[in-house]
Amino acid sequence: MFKINQIFKHHNDLKPLLQEADDRQHLQQCWSAVAPELAKLSHVLAHHDGALTIAVHSGAVASRIRLMEPQLLQKIRDFCQNSRKIKGLNLNAIKVKVQVKSRPPSKHKRIKAPSNQALNTLESYANEANNPALEAALRHFIDRQRHD
């Protein structure tokens, strides 16, 4: 059985895809090494015309990257000089794309109505309560539950 890399290597039309995936993987490793705290909240999208495009999950992370851009570019250059796989990477900018993940609507759990036994117990507590505000609140709650 062929490995996927062998299939890509043997087809001229697919070779560029394999090279692009390999390059992106090396760039992601570089990004993770120079900005580990940011790499948890982002990933490399592309490298084109001297700009590294990073996808982030929030505007706050995007702002942080933009503020740190000069330091990050220098760290990336230093990393590339010491790397065998990414030598000669010429970066002059970091572009940030915010890609907010949509969340499914949360399901509100319907709270079950208290049983008659629970309401009777609360009513006995209301009768014994020495606090008029507590007694009034319990009676109000009991009345609403029995009439709903």
UniProtKB/TrEMBL annotation:
<dbReference type="Pfam" id="PF05258">
    <property type="entry name" value="DciA"/>
</dbReference>
<protein>
    <submittedName>
        <fullName>DUF721 domain-containing protein</fullName>
    </submittedName>
</protein>
<dbReference type="InterPro" id="IPR007922">
    <property type="entry name" value="DciA-like"/>
</dbReference>
